[in-house]
Amino acid sequence: MRTDWLIALPILIPLLACALSAALWGRARAQRVVTFVAAAALLLASAALVAATLEHGVIASQMGDWPAPFGITLVSDLLAAAMVAITALMYAATAVYAQAEDVERREAEGWHPLLAALVFGVCGAFLTGDLFNLYVWFEVMLIAAFGMLVLGGGREQLDAGVKYAVLNLLATTVFLIGVGMLYGLTGTLNLADLARRVPEVGNDGAVGAVAFLLLAGFGAKAAVFPLFFWLPAAYHTAAAPVAAIFAAMLTKVGVYAIIRVFSLVFVGSSEWIPWVLGGVAAATMVTGVLGAAAHWDIRRILSFHIISQIGYMLVGIAIATPLALAGAVLYIVHHIVVKANLFLVAGAMRRTGGSFALAHLGGLWRRDPWLGILFAVPALSLAGLPPLSGFWGKLVVIQSGLEGGAAWLAAVALAVSLLTLYSMLKIWMEAFWKEPPAGEAPPDLGGTTRLLMLGPVVALALVTLTIGLWTEPFAALALAAGEQLAGREAYIAAVLGGGAP
Amino acid sequence: MEYLVASAIGLTTAVGVYLVLRPHSFPVVIGMALLSYAVNLFIFAMGRLVVHQPPVLQPEATGYADPLPQALVLTAIVISFGMTALFVVLAMRGYLESGSDRVDGRGRRTPPAVEETR
Q1: ipTM of the prediction
Q2: Which residues of chain A are under the pLDDT cut of 70?
Q3: Which residues of B touch A (CB under 8 A)?
């Protein structure tokens, strides 16, 4: 069937790009062609996947034609397809932006194959329908991420890389223990099959322990409240394009895994799950935003805001009504675009102003008003001001909180929005409006560099504006995805063929 | 046999956790390796411990050894081996760059640069 190919393509394209650009080592021009062609192809393939998923509902493909639950299944529902599409967008944006600055050195150290490998792992994690396979994709992603983090290998990056490596490996180990226990309890690791078998286990203690292990493993990847410390320790050292793709994709894969597992497998299996998720969500929002308020370095502020925003997504998962899940989906899509964009703008600000530290910046508005406007769009969207994309994400999440009997979570979310606005305004006042610091300023951003840096930023800002001003199709898509996640039958039927085993 | 395997897993995990909490990178590497051994053994045991049984189900067989965890463990071993190798390289470069193998950044020739002022 045609859809089989469509599901496999988002995994095959980056794999091929990774292999080709690794084979072309040292020939930067050819590598660039490979990366741009792959990004364009991935955009087209993911658009086709979204269209097919909209048309046919959940589509599944059995690798090697082994029938589920024995073989490895690739599944694409609306959430997975949308995530793949947004990954393709990020791939293209970072690939273009990376050409602007410092490109020769980065390319000599393997930027192109590593970026393709990261996208390969991320797409695989979104599309897999098997828990152990998810573990493998996590590791693919992690290896590529280590490589990218230490690109350019200063001492700071290596230091960050070691912390990042140890903490993420520990998280994966915890996840793997959960996978092992789950196999021992049910004898299967296919997600759709698990969704049917877990309620039949009848050993609530063991199922609860597995749920907690998986939550801890994915939560560490997603940087939720007690497990987030690796993120601010690592992200602020990476180069701007690397930080942008990390901030956009890596934590969101963790959130995706939490959504997938807790909306499909552990539905109603333990009473504590919504409470723990809700508490974690609130604590994540608050600690993230307070951490951001305390810092005076753009990249550190943005890193803490990633954590804070993860909390909003968890609110949606904790409430778990179709509307709440739709809110989480809308929020993830909005957040990926906005957060990557902010890191890209931060890179452009450093190029113009000479530093990431707010104390050393100033007067940027007078020198480059366009940069200011391009910072304001994602920054205000992050804080959730209408009519930008963040407003709609927050609106749906908060509305579902009020309807779902979790008014306290909605209140926390609103208060955190205000603090988010505070730290965005702090960057604005310090970097754009303050008097420029004494001393020689770096040269203005101009020529090809300006085009390559601000081109992706403008494109992503346009996506934010489009989601904000023309919300209907996106909201409809998110609502359909929420319905699909809450009603699990479509997913299970698509994988296992609907009939009784 | 269950007691033997269970206590082996427990002991390996305990040693692994202790080593991971050490401040130098070499014990951390060994600790990560031990932890991954413990997890691999755990997954293996989750297929139930049976001896002298075929891994393939045949009509005349009286029982079987579950082959799937063995396949899973094989994958996990390969991945954790690769991860350990990568981590060793990372730790080595960190040591050569900074002249100290402490993971908490103390005892450097020069302390890590403090970016933030104000």
Answers
A1: 0.87
A2: 1-2, 153, 269, 498-501
A3: 20, 25, 28, 32, 35-36, 39, 42-43, 45-48, 68-69, 72, 75-76, 79, 82-83, 86-87, 90-91, 93-94, 97-98, 103, 105, 112-113, 115-118
In this structure, what DSSP letter does residue A128 have?
Answer: B
List of E strands, A332-457: none
Residues of chain B with Cβ-Cβ distance to A153 below 8 Å are 93, 97
- Measure CA A236 to chain center: 17
pTM exceeding the 0.90 threshold for the entire prediction = yes
The shortest CB-CB distance from A184 to any of B28, B46, B97 is to B46
Beta bridge partners of A297: A357
Contact by Cβ (8 Å): A496, A69: yes
Residues of A in contact with B86 (CB under 8 A): 143, 146, 165
CB A262 within 8 A of CB A281: no
Asked whether the CA dihedral A283, A285, A290, A292 is positive or negative, the reply is: positive
Q: How far apart are CA B116 and CA B118, in angstroms?
A: 7
Residue ranges of domains in chain A: 4-495
Distance CA A92, CA A182 (A): 38
pLDDT, tens digit (0-9, with 9 covering 90-100), for A91-106 = 999 999 988 877 788 8
Burial group, residue B2, by CB count within 10 angstroms (0-12, 13-18, 19+): exposed
CA-closest candidate to residue A88, choices A50, A53, A62: A50
Under DSSP, the state recorded for B24 is B
CA distance B45 to B6: 9
